[in-house]
Amino acid sequence: MYTSTRNAQLQLNSKEALTQGFATDGGLFVLPTLPKVDLDQMLATNYQGQAKIVLSALLPDFEAEVIDQVVTEAYGKQWDDARITPLQKLNDQYILELFHGPTSAFKDIGLQVLPRLLHNAIDAQTKVLILAATSGDTGKAALEGFKDVPQTGIATFYPDGGVSPIQEKQMRTTGGENTHVAAIKGNFDDAQTAVKQMLNNAELAAKLGSVKLSVANSINIGRLAPQVVYYFNAYQQLVQAGAIQTGDEINFTVPTGNFGDVLAGYYAKLMGLPVNKLIVATNANSEVADFLNTGIYDRNRDFIKTVSPSMDIQISSNLERLLFYKSGGDSALVAKLMQDLAETGRYQVSAELLDAIQQDFVAGSASDDDVRDAIASVDSKVDYVMDPHTANGYVVQHQLNVPGVTVLLSTASPFKFPQVVAEAVLKARFESGFDAMAALREQRHLTIPAPLAQLQQLPERFDTVLNPEAMPEWVAQLAKEM
Ligand SMILES: *Cc1c(COP(=O)(O)O)cnc(C)c1O
């Protein structure tokens, strides 16, 4: 049974945890002990087979036939590489490309699965309206994942002026009868906080009738669970390439914002994958990296807009799950720390707890200049073009230089952030993202992912801009129309 990170008395099954999103006490849903999977069995099957094993282990209430069908549909022809997450070797650097899905960012891995599971978990009378705060990539991936899924609606909120022009265009051009998009006056944390408040807003709930609200961020276990799979798959690809022997420990470098991606790596380790260190990379919004180095989480500082907007996050929600596991399931402690964070913007953990965390995690941060230099130097050395988020990981990996084989997770296609990338690689400025895309294609002979190549021609369907205070009323109206 799942429980809450803030109240270990609570018990609910995985279908309920997935439908509800997060606990009414504000905590996140966790399994008190993570199940082990059989490594040999994982290494003997393909991506889809691995996904079935991991999802069955983490979401035990879903019938095997349902998981089978969900996985088959989620990892099908909408991916432009049959391996789903191909591993690239550049000299002695391994890069796991997580961006071959329909929206060209790693969010597709979870968001091709979550809507299908959710639809299965609810009864025929229930309708669910998904609220998604997004720093850019979750929004589009959630819109595509939930588009026209029966009994569901999806509303995404992104910081006005806080996402890349391509990301904004991707969201505003989404099709589907049940999709909604609004820009929010504020930053990502303002949007995320407002979404969390709406989920615990009794007055709003009373207006919604039979419509339930839920979340598609990585705080939803139905999104986190699928992300565990690619850590095993990367390991398998290394074994197949002869780079390691089964049983050898490897490291992963993970560009981090909300701590969902790297937490999935920790889940993989707890479930039996031989992992040495998880290398956490942030951009200049370095709250998480500083915490992992000092034991002090402090968000009382300026929010910085960087060239890796999907990581411009000051409150890393999923860190809460790590605190739960590393404290031995001490939900009272987690509740206290989260209260400190809410009231003072800061918390500090004991030396013992920090030590336990540092057994598995090392961390660093990268500046925008580091990121631009890394994109340019990797391109000139090995002829590989990275996106800015991935480049944060590259920089931090080289700062910290952890011994052993290390896989860098590449979280987005460079074509999602073409202006920054083209500027670094081609040493020229471009008026628009589309100009930059075209220049990259022509001068670097790269293939633009099909959905991004078509984007410029698509009509924009949404132009709503809201103050955070106006969000509940807007959501109530959407629910009425469902
Ligand atoms: C969301 C995102 C991240 C950060 O992932 P978290 O799970 O929030 O840590 C990094 N890079 C890209 C491109 C993203 O979209």
Automatic annotation (TrEMBL):
InterPro entries for this protein: Thr_synth_N, Thr_synth_N_sf, Thr_synthase-like, TrpB-like_PALP, TrpB-like_PALP_sf
UniProt entry keywords in alphabetical sequence: Pyridoxal phosphate
Enzyme class: lyase
Biological process, per Gene Ontology: threonine biosynthetic process
Residue(s) carrying N6-(pyridoxal phosphate)lysine: 107
Domain of life: Bacteria
Cellular-component GO terms for this entry: cytoplasm
Domain Threonine synthase N-terminal: 2-75
Molecular function terms from GO: threonine synthase activity
Entry keyword Hydrolase: no
Occurrences of domain Tryptophan synthase beta chain-like PALP (ranges): 85-331
Cofactor: pyridoxal 5'-phosphate
EC code: 4.2.3.1
Keyword Membrane among UniProt keywords: no
Family the UniProt entry places it in: Belongs to the threonine synthase family.
NCBIfam families per the UniProt record, alphabetical: thrC
Record-given protein name: Threonine synthase
